[in-house]
Amino acid sequence: MVNAEIIAVGSELLLGQIANTNAQFLSQQLAGLGINVYFHTVVGDNAGRLEQAVKTAQTRANLIIFTGGLGPTKDDLTKETISRLLGRRLVTDEEALRAIEAFFARTNRPMTENNKKQALILEGAAVLKNEHGMAPGMALTVDGITYMLLPGPPKEMQPMFTKYGAPFLRGVFSLSGRIESRVLRFFGIGESALETALADLIDAQSNPTIAPLANDGEVTLRLTAKHQDQAEAKRLLDEAEAAILTRVGRYCYGYNDETLFTKTLERLKERGWTIAAAESLTGGLFLEQLTAVPGASAAVSGGVVCYTNGVKEHLLGVPRPLLETNGAVSEPCARLLAENVRTMCDADVGISFTGVAGPDPLEGHPPGTVYVGIAIRGRDTTVHRLALSGTRDAIRTRTAKYGCFFLLETLAAGR
Amino acid sequence: MVNAEIIAVGSELLLGQIANTNAQFLSQQLAGLGINVYFHTVVGDNAGRLEQAVKTAQTRANLIIFTGGLGPTKDDLTKETISRLLGRRLVTDEEALRAIEAFFARTNRPMTENNKKQALILEGAAVLKNEHGMAPGMALTVDGITYMLLPGPPKEMQPMFTKYGAPFLRGVFSLSGRIESRVLRFFGIGESALETALADLIDAQSNPTIAPLANDGEVTLRLTAKHQDQAEAKRLLDEAEAAILTRVGRYCYGYNDETLFTKTLERLKERGWTIAAAESLTGGLFLEQLTAVPGASAAVSGGVVCYTNGVKEHLLGVPRPLLETNGAVSEPCARLLAENVRTMCDADVGISFTGVAGPDPLEGHPPGTVYVGIAIRGRDTTVHRLALSGTRDAIRTRTAKYGCFFLLETLAAGR
Q1: How far is CA A5 from the centre of its chain?
Q2: CATH number at residue B208
Q3: How many C-beta atoms surround the C-beta of residue B380 within 10 A?
Q4: Which of A171, A189, B213, B371 is the most exposed place for a label (fewest CB within 10 A)?
Q5: Which chain B residues contact residue A29 at CB under 8 A?
Q6: What residue numbers bound the domain in which B292 lies?
């Protein structure tokens, strides 16, 4: 078993100036190699504390990957600290030195003396070439622990790891076996309800593993299977997916990087249909999310942001008496908005969102009271009522997502 | 001295599904409180390894802040682990339990038994209310070390820390007005141009420090002053700010958490004016951002998302010959869109966005070609042309921000 720890070195991380996206990238890559990551550590540009972090990692990991601290300045001390801890000298790598000299010659800049420091490597280490910057990476194994040092800038680190780091790890740890993973995306069901429905499957998980994650009103399940044979790993995933979908398939809308919006566009394009929206509480969010997808113009006509009753009445033809008796936050208003925006924009589908985003109540309704209307050419209009909770932002975002979810349901039913 | 360590709990971080943005947020906040952060640690949903991480942190920190692992599932074990380590019982917080029950009642969902777990707190801990979710946070000091437990979702954690966590830390560590900071927000000028204009000031910085950060087409400068006397710290900030604004004040639109959108709403409300928008390439983004601000209804009428030429023609009255000769991506089209949406929505200001978001060219124009029209009741309409670069997302976002920037300039000039 390979157990990895990722140590990011840099005071800018501890000041919150940047997020540790290097650890995220490396974790994804290592998961794909079948390597367990049990800890991430972030430490500043301080030799004593870095030494402490390395010593702790040595007690619990057999692969320690460092990012950052390979540069030319006095603050960069990753190599120097590890050199001291392992009792390995730093020696100049001639090829790296020539590359650094060539870089300065090419950019017509004088090479200051401190840049030579970047060509120093731990004696006996394999050099990982930096094709996007100056400081090379390196890797070596001492007393059963493999140390890999990578530069901090993601533009240098990522290609270095993919091209040289990962193959090194495959070799040193004799990694064969395949890891296959698949993300199932759910909407309309909460994380705890989903877990309750799948409790026995999640408890019994081993291969594939099943990892739930909640985010922005959605829940995802990441299935990860390990097998020597790739086809067999895929079969394990198919089997687990089938067991899951038998129970909660109704709420599963897609896979991996799909979103409710890309899925909605896809379904509309399959039919050659267009959509128009009338947005009150969402204020343009639904159309904005749809049109954020390249190629949206094939299926999106446009729509009206009817934030005030005046716009609902004058632009979208909702009669004033209806607004005065039923209110804007009502089933008949949602119905008319969806139907009228559809005809006005000459679209196949009209969708409407009217309700209370908060923080204050509206027309006597609490925040989260929402009506979503769906009008399809030649069919009866449907209106869905929601009672959402959360912040103004959460209510608006979920409302737009529910719009996609209801529309996808409607389109699936009418197939 | 307060030395903090941030421990994020969650296997999704170790799988690289998300980046540890919570540690970034908290690090920024702690820096603002004058608290040193020396380590970040990430550990999975595993009691043994979490225990190990806590024990390591206890040897080197007197403030340990945890994020994540407070939810309802069996994977959530932060409280339970700390309870065991500190020998503190978990007890039900009645107020938190009532809030959770109310949440389920309000959303018409059955409350599963495991949700009650979220109302458990460490005996004797101060409860940090969760106003955006269910699991409360908590904080307590045992044997000279303060433990603060916060939920994982940033939407819950951030407001909880700001409103309840930071005041708790100020109290327990007797932090008084030693650190004052102020963020100046710039738009319309690049990071390197700003740094060049301020090079000598940035080089000579010590108190206050000046830290530039570029993000989403904006640049911010964070000024941080340290002084025993709060009034003196503020004076140092005022002095630095004045020196900066003398040079680049034209591009400075606001302070701290202000955005171009909140600023635009503020200026409109001051005049009692309303705004309407016609959005082509932005697809609703401008109105969505404006209406994301609570209270936007006082100044936002609504508008039209005119993604297709059909909608530009039929809903917004742009004559077909104009679309055929000048094109949709043109100065006269932007002008008419702004004027017509203003009158249609009976607003004081009409603003329009038409152009090419990409990735493909449109009407022979490269991505980033954008026209922004501004029509104000009783004044001449103005149209601004932009040549932006970047991804589809970046072009759309910057276009909407330039809309605010031009409108703020126009309003300031016409005062």
Answers
A1: 22
A2: 3.30.70.2860
A3: 7
A4: A171
A5: 16
A6: 260-413
